[in-house]
Amino acid sequence: MAKANAILLLVLFSLASPIAFSSDPSPLQDICVADLKNPVKVNGFVCKDPKLAVAEDFFFPGLDKMRTPNAVGSNVTAVNVNQIAGLNTLGISMVRIDYAPYGQNPPHTHPRATEILTVLEGSLFVGFVTSNPENRLISKVLQKGDVFVFPIGLVHFQFNVGNTNAVAIGALSSQNPGVITIANAVFGSKPMISADILARAFQVEKKIVDLIQSKF
């Protein structure tokens, strides 16, 4: 009986244990600085010789500088493996987000990472939407010093509710979290998704879809 219980516990542990794993594989050595120019393509980046690693491989300057917001009133400065090669295999990255007054970081997802956001300046209305069929919006207004979590893969957004600039820092649980901005993906794909398909999906007239697609 004891043996059977032990086997059952082992099976349950083997089924449950992957849930605790991060989205990126664990490193197998101290450092694995990405060789971004290597033509070999793997799930991640090939490591360069550790003996050739230098401090610059683990460094990124200027995150204190504000960047000019784009057409929707925000600018995201990413610091992932493409900017810091030493992040390769470490499973983390970060972003600085600058918001113009009433600017937004529009609805988007990170397919490979959970994000934890800290407001440094200003007030932000933030939220994420749970999966079908619930599609429940979980949202909150954040003030300076507040922290909010966006679970991996879920659509989320931030909106500056103030008439002054706002700044936030986000940490992400992947060296290369990726980003899918919903409007860009749906209306700005190359080649474009058929307007007839989108008109039916959004239950609007085709001319409305044509107008939106023209802006992308």
From TrEMBL:
Superkingdom classification of source: Eukaryota
Cellular component GO terms, alphabetical: apoplast
Gene3D superfamilies, alphabetized: Jelly Rolls
SUPFAM superfamilies reported in the protein's UniProt record: RmlC-like cupins
Covalent S-S links between cysteines: 32-47
Signal peptide: 1-22
A Pfam cross-reference name: Cupin_1
Cupin type-1 domain mapped to chain residues: 61-210
Entry keyword Metal-binding: yes
GO MF annotation, one: manganese ion binding
Cellular localization per UniProt: Secreted, Extracellular space, Apoplast
Keywords tagged on the record: Apoplast, Disulfide bond, Manganese, Metal-binding, Secreted, Signal
Binding, Mn(2+): 108, 110, 115, 156
Name by which UniProt lists this protein: Germin-like protein
Organism: Aristolochia fimbriata
